[in-house]
Amino acid sequence: MKPSPAPGIDSASSVDSLYYRGDEGINNSDRSICHQKEDDDLDQGNGNQNAEENHPKDEDEIDRVHSFDFGARFVVRDEVLMTQPHSGLPKPEAPPGASEQGVPSPETLETPALVAIGKFFRDKSATITRRISSLKSEEEDGVKEFNLVGVKVTKSLKEDKKELNGRITFFSRSNCRDSGAMRSFFRKNNLNFFEINIDVYPEREKEFLERTNGASPPQMFFNEKLIGGLVALNSLRNSGTLESKIEEILSQKCPPEAPSPPAYAFDAVAMDSAVKDEMTAVMRVARKCVPIQDRVMTIKFVKNCFSGAELVEVLIHHLDCGRKKAVEIGKKLARKHFIHHVSGENDFEDGNHYYRFLEHEPFIPKCHNIRVVNDFEPNSASALSQRLFCLMSAILESYSLDDDRKHLDYVRISNSEEFRRYRALVEDLQRVDLMTLSEKDKLVFFLNLHNAMAIHAVTRIGPPGPMINHRIAFFSEFMYVLGGYSYSLSTITNGILRGNRRTPYFLVKPFSKGDKRLELALEKPNPLIHFGIWNAAKGSRSIRFFTTKGIDCELRTAARAYLQREDGVKVDLTNRIVYLPKIIKWYAADFGDDKEILKWIINFLNPSQAGLLTHLLSDGSSANIAYQGYDWSLDT
Question: What are the tens digits of pLDDT across the range 581-607?
Fold first, then answer.
C-alpha cells in the first residue's frame, strides 16, 4: 500500500530535484522545500534527456516554494536524496536481528585515498606482469634479472634433463670421496641417475660384489653394462667418448637384467639379525596379568603402576617357579629396561615397591622413537652408532642443497627411504645398553645422535625459530627413549656432552644426584664439542657426523671452519674490540675467562686474524670482547 502524499504536495506530481538552499531565507520556524513540477514529456516516455533539460540550474528557475507545518525537509547533495521523516510519523521497525546502525553505502567507503591506493596496486601489478611476460619471448639462455621500485624479479632458465630410454645406476658408500665426485658429475651434467648406497641398503651388497667381481665402490652401470669406477669415468671424459657411449647404450630401453633402482622396503639385514629377547614371553604374561592401577606412595600420587609383590605372584603362578626365582626374573626385566621403579630407587625388589612398564612412563608421549616397545634383543650400542653414522652421512650427501652442506632439503629428507630407515634404527635404541660404550664412543654416539635428532625435530615439529617458546619445544620437549630413559636435545648437550653442567640461564643441572643417566655423562668435557653440535639454525655450526677414529681432528676442523666465518671471530684493532660468536658467551664456563678464551681461539683463526689478535694481546693494553648476533632462522 502506497502512503498518501504529504499535505501541500500534489499527488499527480513528483519531486524531480530538490536543492539545499543553505540558511538564506530559511529560518527554524519556517522550513521550506523546493518543488518543481514534472514535465509532461517525462510522462510520455521521452527519457532522462528531457528531465535533465528541465532540471533547475539556478535558484531563479525554481517554480514555487511551499512551507509545511510538519517540518520535513528534503535535501539533495550531489544527486543523492536525503530525507528525514516528520517526528510525529511512526518510525519503521528494524528486521529481527538487524543492527541499529545502518550499513554504509559503497559510495561512502570509496574515499579518494582508498581509490588512489587501489589504482597504485593495480598499476604496479600490471607493470610487473608486463615485464615478466616480456621475458617469455626472449630466447637467450642464462639468468634474466630486472628491478622495479621495491621489487626484484629473477628468471632462471632451467636446463631440461637429458631424456634417456636407458638407466644410469651407480653403487656407492657413505662418506666416500670418489662416490661424491661421481655424484657431483652426474648432477652438474644434468643426467638422471639412481644411486644405491650399500651402507644404506646392505641387502644389495652381495649383488654388488657379484656384478663387479669384488670391486670397491663407486661402480657405474649404463643399463646392464658395467662401465667402471671414477677412473673409468674420467677416462671417457678425457677421451671425448663419454657422450657417444651414453647415447649408444642408453638410447636403448633398459633390460630387466640391469640393476634395479632402490625401493621402499624393510631393512632385510636388520630383520634377519633381529632376535626375540628371552624375556619377551615373560613380558607377554606380565602385561596381560599384572594389575595396573593408580596408587598413593607417601605424599605422591603415582599413575599406571604395580607392586613388586604383584609381579612376583604372577610369575610364580604362570612360570611355576619359586619366589626367589621370580625375584631374579623381575631384576632381569629391570636390567633390560622393560620395567622401572617409579622413582628410580632400586632395580627390583619383592614387596610393596611400585614399578611401571616402560610404555607407561609419563615421558613416553613426548618421545618420537617409540610407537610400541621393541621386544627384540637390541643390537650393541657400537653397531647402532656405526649404522647411524652411515645413514645420516648418506642423507647429507643426497639431500644437501649445496656442496658445503650448509642447507638441507627437509621435505625430500622426510620422504626419503634413508630417513625411514633412520627412524626404524632409533626405535632399536629404546632398550640399548649404553654403558658398554667407551668415553670416546659416547662422545661420537651422542654428538651424531644430537644432530640426527635435530633433523628429525625439524621434520616433525618445525625449526627452533626466534621465539623462546619455539626453542623450548625444540630443545627440551622433543625426546627419544634411550636405554629406558628420556633424552632431549638439551639433556644430551648439557647432561651428557658437557658433563652435567647447567643449561645457560638455568639454575639447576639436568641430572639430579640419583639419576641413572648421570652414569653416562662425560667425565672431562671438551670445549670443542660446541663446534660439533648443530641446532638447525643459520647461526649454528655446519652439520657434521663424526667417526670414533677421527673425532679429535674432525672437531678441530669444525672449530676452525666456524670461527673463520663472517659471523665468527673479528678483530677491530682500531677500537681494540674482539667480536666472538654468541655460543662462547652462552658456554663461557667451558672455555675459561676472557684472556684464556682469546689465547685459545688464536689456534683456530686464519693467519691474518691470528696476527691481529696476537698483536692486540701482546701490547700490554686491555682488549674488549663483544659478541655477534645469532641467526635463529632455518638453514634452508
Answer: 999 999 999 998 888 899 999 999 999
The end-to-end CA distance of the chain, in Å, is: 71
> Which of 193, 158, 635 shows the shortest CA–CA distance to 401?
635
Over residues 231-237, mean pLDDT: 93
Tell me which amino acid residue 193 is: F
User: Which range scores top for mean pLDDT: 23-37, 178-192, 545-559?
Assistant: 545-559
Are the C-beta atoms of residues 148 and 132 closer than 8 Å to each other?
Answer: no
492 DSSP 8-state letter = I
Q: Are 344 and 355 in contact (CB under 8 A)?
A: no
At 479, is the secondary structure helix, strand, or coil?
strand
Q: Cβ atoms within 10 A of the Cβ of 539, count?
A: 17
Print burial letters for 583-605: b (CB count within 10 Å at least 16), e (below 16). Answer: bbbebeebbeebeebbeebeebb
**What's the one-letter identity of residue 488?**
S
Query: Which letter, b or e, does each residue of 102-136 get, where b requires 16 or more Cβ atoms within 10 Å of its Cβ?
Result: eeeeeeeeeeeeeeeeeeeeeeeeeeeeeeeeeee
Model pTM above 0.85: no
Among the residue ranges 109-118, 264-273, 332-341, the one predicted with the least confidence is: 264-273
Distance between CA atoms of residues 535 and 452, nearest Å: 10
